[in-house]
Recover the amino acids of this structure.
C-alpha cells in the first residue's frame, strides 16, 4: 500500500502591524476610550492588509478602520482611515500623519 505524502499548501504571509505601530494605535485607542468616544477594538492580519477597527459598541459596525496596505506604500501611501460608510477619510505614507485626523477639532482629547 502506497501512501501519498501530504504536503501542506504554502502558507500565505499575512500583513500585520509592527510593534511601534501597534503601540501608537493602542495609545490613540486609550485616549479615545478615556474621552468616551470608543469602547472596543479589533485587529485583523490579512493577506494584503492589516486592519485596526474601532467600535462605539462591539455589536455594531466599526466607526473607523485604520488600514495598513504595504502594496500601496509607493503609490497612495500604505496607511488609510476608512469611515463607517466605507469612504477613505485620510490616506498617507506615515502613520503619524494619518492619525492626525483624530486631532482635528473633531474630538477634544488632550494627550
Amino acid at each position: 500500500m502506497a501512501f501519498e505524502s501530504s504536503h501542506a499548501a504554502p502558507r500565505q504571509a499575512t500583513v500585520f502591524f509592527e510593534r511601534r505601530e501597534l503601540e501608537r494605535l493602542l495609545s490613540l485607542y486609550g485616549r479615545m476610550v478615556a474621552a468616551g468616544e470608543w469602547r472596543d477594538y479589533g485587529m485583523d492580519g490579512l493577506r494584503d492588509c492589516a486592519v485596526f477597527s474601532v467600535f462605539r459598541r462591539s455589536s455594531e459596525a466599526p466607526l473607523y478602520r485604520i488600514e495598513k496596505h504595504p502594496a500601496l506604500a509607493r503609490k497612495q501611501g500604505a496607511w488609510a482611515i476608512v469611515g463607517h460608510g466605507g469612504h477613505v477619510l485620510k490616506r498617507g505614507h506615515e502613520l503619524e500623519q494619518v492619525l492626525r485626523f483624530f486631532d482635528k477639532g473633531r474630538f477634544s482629547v488632550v494627550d
Observations:
- DSSP finds two helices and five strands in the chain.
